[in-house]
Design goal:
The protein has 4 helices and no strands. With 160 residues, the protein is mostly helical. It has one domain. The mean pLDDT is 93. This is DUF2798 domain-containing protein.
Length: 160
């Protein structure tokens, strides 16, 4: 886990990259009928805008909300590190799925022009994204990001 604002920003950049890239390809695959070279290409092309949007949401809004909720209701700030990681990760996934599902739905209706089905796409995206994002975050993205982060930036190397 990051220990200061600089580390937190670096960690967020890495984590957001992994999650947004994976979820972009996943969402394009959902709406195009399956995983294919074309869905990977489309996910990659839509990635930069989604990444910037997700970073802004994460950095300015969701991380504060998630940490506040986790430390108020789920775990103490001086609690076991694994409990803190799991609590904050779960608390991050819920609002990010809701926000990014709306982003994906908007992206979809912009391409199709079917604005009347925006609420339905958004509401159907939320559970489908949640069942992918939570396990991916807890089992793959989180551990890989933490490992890469600490290999690149050993504790105490990034100054506040």
């Amino acid at each position: 886990m990051p220990h200061n604002k600089r580390e937190s920003l670096i960690y967020t950049v890495i984590m957001c990259f992994v999650m947004v890239l994976w979820m972009s390809v996943y969402n394009v695959s959902l709406h195009s009928g399956g995983l294919s070279a074309e869905s990977i290409r489309a996910g990659w092309l839509g990635f930069p805008a989604a990444y910037i949007f997700a970073m802004c949401c994460d950095w300015f809004f969701v991380s504060r909300l998630a940490k506040g909720f986790a430390f108020r209701f789920l775990v103490r700030p001086d609690g076991h590190p694994l409990k803190k990681v799991l609590s904050i990760s779960c608390c991050m996934v819920v609002p990010m799925v809701i926000i990014m599902s709306l982003y994906g739905a908007l992206e979809n209706v912009i391409h199709t022009g079917q604005w009347n089905i925006l609420p339905m796409i958004w509401l159907t995206n939320i559970p489908m994204n949640f069942i992918m994002a939570l396990p991916f975050q807890l089992l793959i993205a989180g551990p890989v990001t933490r490992k890469v982060f600490r290999l690149a930036f050993p504790e105490g190397k990034v100054l506040a």
